[in-house]
Every structure is written in structure tokens, then in C-alpha cells.
Design brief:
five-stranded mixed β-sheet; alpha/beta; about 5% strand; 26 helices; two-stranded antiparallel ribbon; about 55% helix
């Protein structure tokens, strides 16, 4: 917990940490697009729906702290849980290596809190799947609940499901019926995003594979960058220390520790767990690096553009999550092994000192992560204008959705210390907001535009680009309000359409009302989407009841993994 507190630092103060894609608001209203009933791909389903349900009486900044603290603490404790048979020193060093890692640092700065939560769940899901395989009755239900927590985000749910489900298929004491029930439950939990994807099919942009590929952080290349768990596509969310020579040196030291720890990994983790994590890590590393190498990047691009669901692999660094868990475990085991060697030659005090020094090694790989990445994760407050605009939209019965200007996906507000953040309007306002869903990425000195997938957004963007009259276009796509957010950087906001009536003008926001817009038909597929949500909720409730009410017993399988239990004694370091 001390390491987590040092990492988050100012992020734990009251207020909102608005960075990258991380946008929490005081009271998020549940809107159709949060259930996948919008015009674009359901990228944040069901994450935003869940956040909308829990905010209000408890303000969003509290849930933000719970999410950040919970993700990092759960990750460290999860790795320590896997290393428990190897002793305290292995558990501590492994936990530090997981929490204080380039993967965590870069995703924190990018604002991917739900992905970090899924990664944090991964070691626990591995442990529960293995326990279920060995016959613990409640473990299969706990595994389903963990998959549900990871499934707040599409990538997280698939990651935990695909990495850990094979453990349930390994022969063991768990009955076939229980295995099938757990696996079906894990699949049903993906329906909240899968069904909207099928009901509203949208082709992903083929440019994504190149833009989001794992990025080498220095002259040492993509492979060593990936082995160190770094390589986020967005250079702006990467700590500056990752470009120094210290980064590859620390990576090599950690790999050496991992090599030392590999000797006892099978006895501590168990053969099925080691095989599962090892296979997933190898595949993740291969796919991530393949997307960044010129010789293989074309294959990745083809998969993203032509294979259904292939877009999941375009952000290559995400796939390093299993390797992060395995590397952290091996580093902890290597540190414990070195500590035992020092103990044999120099005694207990020297062994404890050696273990302490080894625990510091991961910190040297990202030294500028300290105290919220040196203040980059500081909390702020929304200006009063935001609540004033929200109140107007709640009181005024004039119909229509809201368009957010200037036409840019991200904002840099003075009151947010100039940090780049996703436009908060779609989550802060109580009506659906039509906003720019393109992504502008600097790649090789050029700005690459990744097209969006919302037809309404495309229509508005085309009108702004060509200079066509904006009012008729807005009314035709169901927009009745214009929100103008002056920013300190980016394109200047165009003038509101002719006939727009100023309703609120503040120092940070202005709101205009338009003539009544055209009525849009309800989105298709509502019954299917709601049925998918109800099915997922039913699975979670059932799993929770079984996890609490099932009798505590363990079935025994012939030859059940005795290798793991038999070696716990020799592996302990006290």
C-alpha cells in the first residue's frame, strides 16, 4: 500500500484527475450510448453505464479514487497472492515489480483506469481458476465474478477470460457441468458489448493498426521495450525516463532476475498456471512486437481491417498484461533465490538488505512515476460553469441533443493545468452529446487522422470542414443545443449557427439553444441490448449467491497437483 500511495500521490486528494481518457464527473446520467445504443462502436460499454449508476449520491471523484487505489492495490496483492508459497520477500519484490512498472505508469497517464482494473484482476482470476480446477466449489463462481469486474471494458473482459479460461479446461477435480457453467457465464458477461457490436455493425478504421502499434521507446528497439512492458503508442503519456539509457539497463536486470526465478516457478505457481501465463505471455509479446516491425506490420494491419474482432489487437501494448504478471512473479522468485544465496554466505541481515535493494530495482526503471508522475496526476475541480450548464439542460424542456465545440476529441483547459483530456461533456451533461470522435495522432512527424465511427459525428465534421451551413445539419441529426468550450490549445470554436439563442455564458462555457431539431427514430436493437444486459446481470447475481452460499468443500482429483504443494517448503525464504 505504501508503494501505491507513492505512485498515486496527489491523485488521492479530493477532486478529479482528468488526464487522457480518464474522465469522471460528479453525477453521470445514464444515457442510451452508455448501453451501446448509440451510433458508434461500444468501446466504453458497460463501463460508463456502471459509473452512471453509482455516481450521484456519492460524487464521481470518490469512485475515481476507489478505482485507482483498488486497481493498483489489487494488482500488487494479486501477484503477492500467487507468490505466497515462496515467502514474503518474493511476494514483496514481485508486487513492487508489478505496480511500479512501465505498463502501469503509461496506462495511468493515458487514463485507462478500467484496463488497469482488469489487469489487476488477472492474477486473482488465475488463482481462482486454478483453485476451481483443483475442486474448490466456490472458486468457479469467484472466477466468474472476477471476469465480470474485468468486463467493464471490452479488452479487459476478453483478456481475463481468454487468459484464464484454459485453466478450467485442464483435467482436475471440477466436474464437467461446473466447468461448462463457469465458462458459459464468462462468455455471457461479454454480451453487453458484443450484442451492440452485432446490432450496429461498424467497420473499424484500417489506419488503427499502424497508429496504435507498440512504439519503441529508444534505440534498443521494440522487443526490449516490450520485454520491459513499455511501448504505449501515445508518446505524450510515456514518462520521460523511458527514453533514457536507464530503461534498457533496468529491463535487462529484471530479465536476469526473472531467469533466476524461472527455476522454481513451476513448484510455486504450479504447472497449469505457469503454462497458462507462459503461453499467453508469449502470444501477447509476439502480437505486440509484430505490429511494430515493418516486416510483420502488414499482417497485423490486415487482421485488424478484415478479421471480425481483429481490432482488439491493434493496441499492441495492451496484450503485454499476462507478461507483466508472469515477469513480476519471476522477478520476485529470482529476488528470493538471490536472498537465500546471500543468507547462506553472509547471514540474515545481509539477506534482508539484498532483498530490499532488489525491491528498489523496478523503481529505477520509471523513477519519474513518483508522487503521481511528479504531479501529472494532480486532482482538480470542475468550474461552476459546468454545473450551471447541466442545470439548464435538466430544467429546460427544449428537445434535442448537444453538439460540443470546438470540433476536437481532446481538450486542454487552463483549469486542468493544460493537461490533455478527453472532452468531459458527453459524461458531464444529462443529454447525449455529439462530439468529434476522430483521433489525431502524431506519427513520424506527421499528423495521422484515425476516422471515427459515429455517422452523426461524421455529418457534423463534414459540414465544419466544408463550410456548409451548420444549423440545418445539426437539426437534421437531432441536435438542439450547442456547447462551446473555449480551450487554451487546438482549433478555435466556430461561431454558433444563425438563430442560436444564448442561454448561458460563463468564463469557461457557453450554451446556445437552437430551433427544434428533427425527431430521430429510436435506435434499433434495444430489446436485444437490454436482454444482453439483463443476462449479464443475472450471471453476476447467480455467481455471487453461489460464491456465498455454496458449501465449503473440495473435491479431490487423482494426483491433484501434488508438485505444487510438495515444493512449498523448500521455496520459502522466511
Amino acid at each position: 500500500m505504501a508503494v501505491v500511495a507513492v505512485v498515486l500521490g496527489p491523485a488521492l486528494r479530493p477532486g478529479y484527475v482528468l488526464t487522457g481518457d480518464q474522465v469522471f464527473v460528479p453525477d453521470q446520467t445514464l444515457l442510451p450510448w452508455m448501453l451501446g445504443l448509440g451510433g458508434g462502436l461500444p468501446r466504453s460499454v458497460p463501463q460508463d453505464a456502471v459509473v452512471a449508476l453509482v455516481t450521484g449520491p456519492v460524487p464521481g471523484w470518490v469512485w475515481e479514487k476507489v478505482a485507482l487505489l483498488g486497481a493498483l492495490s489489487t494488482l500488487g496483492l494479486g501477484v503477492a497472492r500467487l507468490l505466497r508459497p515462496a515467502g514474503r520477500r518474493a511476494a514483496v519484490v514481485g508486487a513492487v515489480a508489478a505496480v511500479w512498472s512501465p505498463y502501469v505508469a503509461e496506462r495511468l497517464l493515458q487514463g485507462h483506469w478500467s484496463l488497469l482494473l482488469a489487469v489487476a484482476v488477472l492474477p486473482w482470476a488465475v488463482a481462482q481458476a486454478d483453485a476451481a480446477r483443483r475442486g474448490e466449489v466456490r472458486a468457479a463462481s469467484r472466477w466468474v465474478l472476477l471476469v465480470g469486474l474485468a468486463s467493464l471494458t471490452v479488452t479487459g473482459g476478453l483478456l481475463v477470460l481468454l487468459v484464464t479460461a484454459p485453466l478450467l479446461l485442464v483435467p482436475g477435480a471440477l466436474s464437467r457441468r461446473a466447468r461448462v457453467a463457469a465458462l458459459v457465464g464468462g462468455v455471457v458477461l461479454q454480451l453487453p458489448w458484443l450484442v451492440p457490436s452485432l446490432v450496429h455493425p461498424v467497420s473499424p478504421a484500417p489506419l488503427g493498426a499502424d497508429v496504435f502499434a507498440l512504439r519503441s521507446e529508444g534505440w534498443w528497439g521494440s522487443l526490449l521495450t516490450a520485454l520491459g512492458t513499455g511501448g504505449l503508442w501515445n508518446a505524450g503519456s510515456v514518462p520521460s525516463s523511458r527514453a533514457t539509457v536507464l530503461a534498457p539497463i533496468v529491463t535487462v536486470v529484471l530479465l536476469a532476475l526473472a531467469f533466476l526465478g524461472s527455476r522454481g516457478a513451476r513448484r510455486v505457481l504450479g504447472t497449469p498456471v505457469l503454462a497458462c501465463l507462459g503461453t499467453a505471455s508469449a502470444l501477447g509479446l509476439a502480437v505486440a512486437v509484430a505490429g511494430s516491425w515493418s516486416a510483420t506490420a502488414g499482417v497485423t494491419a490486415w487482421v485488424v481491417a478484415h478479421v471480425p474482432g481483429g481490432g482488439v489487437i491493434r493496441d499492441g501494448q495492451k496484450l503485454l498484461a499476462p507478461w507483466l504478471i508472469l515477469l513480476s512473479c519471476l522477478v520476485g522468485l529470482g529476488a528470493a533465490r538471490l536472498s537465500r544465496a546471500v543468507h547462506a554466505r553472509r547471514g540474515a541481515p545481509a539477506a534482508a538488505a539484498a532483498a530490499g535493494l532488489l525491491a528498489v530495482v523496478p523503481l529505477l526503471g520509471v523513477p519519474d512515476l513518483v508522487w503521481g508522475a511528479q504531479g501529472r496526476l494532480a486532482a482538480v475541480r470542475y468550474p461552476d460553469d459546468w454545473n450551471a450548464v447541466r442545470d439548464v439542460l435538466l430544467r429546460d424542456a427544449a428537445p434535442g441533443d448537444v453538439v460540443s465545440l470546438p470540433w476536437s476529441t481532446f481538450r486542454r483547459f487552463d483549469w486542468n493545468d493544460g493537461r490533455t483530456v478527453l472532452d468531459p461533456a458527453p459524461r458531464f451533461l444529462p443529454r447525449t452529446v455529439v462530439a468529434d470522435d476522430r483521433l489525431l495522432v502524431s506519427r513520424g512527424g506527421e499528423v495521422v487522422v484515425v476516422p471515427g465511427d459515429d455517422p452523426r459525428s461524421a455529418a457534423v465534421g463534414e459540414a465544419l470542414r466544408t463550410g456548409a451551413p451548420l444549423g440545418p445539419v445539426l437539426r437534421s441529426v437531432g441536435v438542439g443545443w450547442v456547447l462551446v468550450e473555449p480551450t487554451t490549445a487546438g482549433p478555435s470554436a466556430p461561431s454558433p449557427p444563425a438563430g442560436a439563442v444564448l442561454v448561458h455564458r460563463g468564463s469557461t462555457l457557453s450554451l446556445y439553444r437552437l430551433a427544434a431539431p428533427a425527431s430521430l427514430p429510436p435506435p434499433p436493437g434495444r430489446p436485444a441490448v437490454l436482454s444482453a444486459d439483463a443476462s449479464a446481470l443475472a450471471v453476476l447475481v447467480t455467481a455471487a449467491l453461489v460464491a456465498v452460499a455454496a458449501p465449503r468443500r473440495r473435491a479431490r482429483a487423482p494426483g491433484a497437483d501434488g508438485a505444487r504443494a510438495g515444493a512449498r517448503g523448500p521455496e520459502r525464504d522466511g
